[in-house]
Hints:
The structure is a homodimer.
Chain A: E1 2-11, E2 14-24, E3 27-32, H1 40-51, E4 57-64, E5 67-72, H2 90-103, H3 106-122, E6 125-132, H4 148-160, E7 163-170, H5 192-200, E8 208-214, H6 225-235, E9 240-244, H7 248-258, H8 262-268, E10 276-280, H9 286-294, E11 298-301, H10 303-308, H11 316-322, E12 325-328, H12 338-353, H13 361-375, E13 392-395, H14 409-414, E14 421-426, E15 429-433, H15 437-453
Parallel strand pairs in A: 1-4, 5-6, 6-7, 7-8, 8-9, 9-10, 10-11, 11-12
Antiparallel strand pairs in A: 1-2, 2-3, 4-13, 13-14, 14-15
Amino acid sequence: MTTYLLERALLPDGWRDEVEVTVEDGRFVEVRDPFTRFDPQALADNLGIHRSAGESVRVPGLTIPGLANTHSHAFHRALRGRTQAGQGTFWTWREQMYAVAERLDPDGYLELATATFQEMVAAGITCVGEFHYLHHGRDGTPYTDPNEMGAVLVEAARVAGLRITVLDTLYLSSGFGAAPRGAQVRYADGSALAWAERVSALVAPEHAIVAGALHSVRTLPKDPAETLNLLAGWAADRPFHVHLSEQVAENEGALAAYGLTPTRLLAAHGLLGPMTTAVHATHLCDRDIAELGSASAFVSFCPTTERDLGDGVGPSRRLADAGARLTLGSDSNAVIDLFEEMRAVELDERLVTQRRGHWRSADLIEAATTTGHASLGWPDAGAIAVGQRADLVTLDTTTPRTAGTGADEHTVVFAAGAGDVVSTMIEGRLIFRHDDREEIGRALSRAIGKVWAE
Amino acid sequence: MTTYLLERALLPDGWRDEVEVTVEDGRFVEVRDPFTRFDPQALADNLGIHRSAGESVRVPGLTIPGLANTHSHAFHRALRGRTQAGQGTFWTWREQMYAVAERLDPDGYLELATATFQEMVAAGITCVGEFHYLHHGRDGTPYTDPNEMGAVLVEAARVAGLRITVLDTLYLSSGFGAAPRGAQVRYADGSALAWAERVSALVAPEHAIVAGALHSVRTLPKDPAETLNLLAGWAADRPFHVHLSEQVAENEGALAAYGLTPTRLLAAHGLLGPMTTAVHATHLCDRDIAELGSASAFVSFCPTTERDLGDGVGPSRRLADAGARLTLGSDSNAVIDLFEEMRAVELDERLVTQRRGHWRSADLIEAATTTGHASLGWPDAGAIAVGQRADLVTLDTTTPRTAGTGADEHTVVFAAGAGDVVSTMIEGRLIFRHDDREEIGRALSRAIGKVWAE
Lengths: 454, 454
């Protein structure tokens, strides 16, 4: 049992100074906020606590709950600074990404994913949703343990010290029924049943959840009904994620192949529900937005990736107004900085509407914390409250970026960057301190150096 | 005379490893690149130099020329994290900005501008173009020295250690002839002649240039011909900057008042030339783009501010193709990070076109270095070459952001952030080292605290 005295912390009902939190077995067992309660006895007790503050560990700075990164492809980290300069479209970028996908073996993947997850922890991320499709050997042959690559991700998260939801991805086709080719043979299980059987065998230790995903409606067989019905069973009571309408071409393909938009195809088969996360959700028609909203689905926006890949700006505000729940992801990991993702949702909406103030800062923080965690199957994380998993992310409010900014939710959303995180606690364990940045940089250099040296 | 051995540096013709530069009286007097010359004697000499490398100061990391920030309002730094959350439009944001403008006196302005310029130096900026309009006392009365506020900016730059071009701004009207009101009385000189007389008396020490600016065509008198003709004299042989078509409303107002777009109005009076910088240049018609291009005018894009204020995405690629020359500015200083501005030009163009690869990374670095410096009247800065002012900005390529990214121009543009700058040398003086960040944060906190405490 350890008690921390947080100089300033974001509780579910707002900012409080001098908050004492007590952590036991990885959860908050007490959260005391001495100066906003009017019970005289409690006040006296709390003043007492203050007098004995030497017994608690003082945490200066601005402390927020742990951030949930709801959409990551860990291995894309090797592409940072290497494909951003390319010309072309999303589709030409994908060819470069496949070149890395073809190179990775389990050892290299473990090293790369571990270092990438460490960078996430250094950015205040306490839980990652890893959209996992790199399942099989280079020629498509399953490994002896067909879940070896998934197990690598679980192990990487354990070493890095954060929670993981493995979103094990069904990928049957290169596009509306066409056979997988090139790097795609590593993704494909042949049938939905084979996928389900494999994924069911992936073991999840305490820090992990295994859940299902569909790569996108592009990767369904020509007659998708049976596959979608099977997936609906998976999506009923656990997280289910799917890339949705990231590109206009996906919509056109779906309309040509199935006569429905991707959203409506999923809805028609019971795949839109309160455990579904639609990733990107960029190019939607009014009816799509209404469907996602009425299903209370999650949407995972990844604005820095959506900029990078030229996806466009999705209708985040209209989705939220319709009832959908925003979460945030670092996706391609060209940037790992959920502070940047938070503000980018608002700023990109400004660019296309020429108006300001679509999102309240507090709501963007909620997207990055409680809502994000819920979409990954961890509803008991993302808030500094009794019973929740004890994640604490502390920002330095005295750096050149953050100094003089008011130390509130607008500092978090509009001033802070990943580099301002001074410590990250996950389930009561101090996983990251600012001085660890050097070692994380070295780990990334080593891991990525090996990918490109091969 | 000091010699530095740069581990890896960006020279005018590309990246070179183990570059020796010798600095005397603030300029590069030798730049030696031992391994790419094929003169055997030179090679032998250079190997000799390597053997005696102990005599030179080794600079590990990625070294680039100094960055020029071509558009800044230093005092807006006090608004970071305080207005970004607001609703409304550019125009409602402006009211909040005016609230700070009303509070500042020369002492407070000196402290705030100094700390803000220090943050710039920490971000690798070696020269700032300060778009200066806060001229007079709170009620519009000139100070005893009518250039007191301009002198404050020159002094702030001296203390912070960077070059400054004071773009002293003519502001005659609140909008197409209407009288200045509120904070605007601090900006106005009454007539163009009074402005010219005042600005001519502002003394520029060696680290400063004084140049002219027009706030925008909005701030011209109802009959603008005489004023524009006077400004054309100023713009002939020294930098001249003007906010141009940042908002659709400015275009509409100009068409209503003058029957011309802002660009064409300036062109009609000889105000578009190779020393003119059009700031923002967001909402342009085809003919505007052609005019700016054929004039070889500079355009200062400020993408993070343009996002923040909901300005929209300007046609950077089309302007450059037409012949205009791109530079970059931090403008509102809600972010001070020209690395972010570089990539934002490309990424925002991707968002609106859904295609990638509009700008080469090398061209974005050129915008932020040589072209930026030229637009501020310092054509002998922004390159690591003999005769140029000896500015060197060194990036750490081993941080979590930059590790494993290839250490080339794509690292600079697509991975690095201001926080990765480990040192900034300006005209041979080491002005910033990474450890100074703490003190800069304190200076910002102090200065901004005073603004809001008043």
